[in-house]
Write a structure and sequence with these properties.
- A nine-stranded mixed sheet has the order 1-2-3-5-4-6-7-8-9, with helices on both faces.
- The longest helix has 18 residues, at about 265-280.
- About 50% of the residues are buried.
- Helix 2 (about 70-75) packs parallel to helix 10 (about 265-280).
- Helices cover about 35% and strands about 25% of the residues.
- The protein contains ten helices and nine strands.
- The radius of gyration is 18 Å and the shape is globular.
- The protein is an alpha/beta fold and about 280 residues long.
- It has a single domain, classed as 3-Layer(aba) Sandwich (Rossmann fold).
Length: about 280
């Protein structure tokens, strides 16, 4: 298969189109799928800013497109949604599917340094390969105007990608992010296997650690967190990120939402706020 993306499905929604593509990824060494939601076009020359969504553990490029309802606000705000998969697939690395929180569907948006997991380079895929692919193949997208958001593992990905690339993204937001992975079971498992034993390497993919280094943040960071989320106290640790932001004066809005859990029902409830948050930053 060519590296050039091939359209594999298209569905009209809120005047725009959900389109799914596959392509061969040199970064990951396998075939990958991604979705784009194109808002309705106002004129042939109009270019849409892009908003990347990073999904959580066990997800593919389909969960957000099918469950979030984000297309309604994206359509009215004129923002294109870009939704990649969460890990390489089909490489048949031994043990890649043994657990739901590591391996397939659990790329953690980092570049693995351990030989066995050398194809797990989702950080480079999201930050470098995918934007270059969009720029080359979709003239209707303005990739120079970009923002990023995500959920859980994808919230961790969005925060770390944003902080390390403040020149590339206008804004960031997250739903129930894994905010301090070096101090939670999910993070310990993933980082040990992907990155080895050196804790300094782990800190390069921890938003709570990164915020002290990369704090020239202009747009307020928005985080929504359900108070009835079963992962809140031991896995997500948003209060640690909040403390770190306060120390360096980074603008942060954490909204604790009573009664909400970790699911897409929670995401769908507040997704419009996030789309508008990014649309404002993208200068529409």
């Amino acid at each position: 298969m060519e590296t050039k993306p091939t359209e594999i499905s298209s569905s009209k929604m809120f005047g725009g189109y959900n389109k799914r593509y596959k392509h061969l990824s040199p970064t990951l060494g396998c075939s990958m799928n991604f979705h784009i939601f194109f808002p309705p076009s106002t004129s042939p020359s109009h270019k849409f800013p892009v908003l990347y969504w990073l999904s959580g553990l066990t997800c593919t490029d389909e969960n957000f497109i099918a469950k979030s309802g984000a297309q309604r606000a994206a359509s009215s705000e004129g923002v294109a949604l870009i939704v990649p998969d969460t890990s390489p697939r089909g490489l048949n690395v031994e043990g890649e599917s043994d657990s739901w929180d590591f391996g397939v569907g659990a790329g953690f948006y980092l570049n693995a340094t351990q030989e066995k997991w050398k194809n797990w380079r989702m950080y480079d895929y999201v930050v470098k390969e995918l934007p270059a692919l969009l720029l080359e193949n979709f003239p209707e997208l303005d990739t120079s105007r970009a923002s990023i958001f995500g959920h859980s593992m994808g919230g961790h990905g969005a925060l770390t990608v944003y902080l390390k690339n403040l020149d590339k993204y206008r804004s960031v937001s997250a739903f129930a992010p894994i905010a301090n992975p070096i101090n939670c079971p999910w993070g310990l498992k993933a980082f040990t296997n992907y990155l080895g034993e050196n804790k300094a390497d782990w800190e390069e993919y921890d938003a709570t650690c990164l915020i002290s280094k990369f704090n020239n943040v202009s747009a307020t960071i928005l985080i929504d967190q359900g108070e009835d989320d079963k992962f809140l106290k031991d896995q997500l640790l948003p209060h640690k990120f909040e403390e770190a932001c306060r120390k360096v004066g980074v603008p942060l809005l954490v909204r604790l939402q009573p009664g909400y859990d970790h699911s897409y029902y929670f995401i769908a409830t507040f997704i419009d706020d996030h789309i508008r948050h990014h649309a404002q930053a993208l200068n529409l």
